[in-house]
Amino acid sequence: MAGPTADAREATPAGVARLSGFALECRDPAALAAFYSALTGWPVVHASADWYSLGPSADAGFHLSFQRAPGHRPPVWPDPASPMQAHLHLRADDLDAAQARALALGATLFPGQADQAGSRVLADPAGHPFCLCPAPS
To answer: Looking at residue 1, what is its pLDDT?
Structure first.
């Protein structure tokens, strides 16, 4: 794949870094890695006592990681006094099937979601909110 054209480089400010991953703190990184591996299909590409990473491959440009935090407390949502701060969006071709699979893997659905045709907000087994979003048509 060719790089950006000279016109595109001039129209877009050059970055100085690339996003290489996102890490979630949790009490049990192995368990949370297993949950997201089953949900995304990505294999575990790094495992140690305190850190697990998933990705398409070990040398992929992006990894989703899980760091041991013994005192981790999940955010409460919805709660204006305790916002979710950050959450993942996972695209799914079939939201009902993706939600059923996530729930079977240990996720919980946040209450009060009337629009089941749009995105759905769930919590992973460690309590981190994530959204299942419809895949673009």
So the answer is: 47
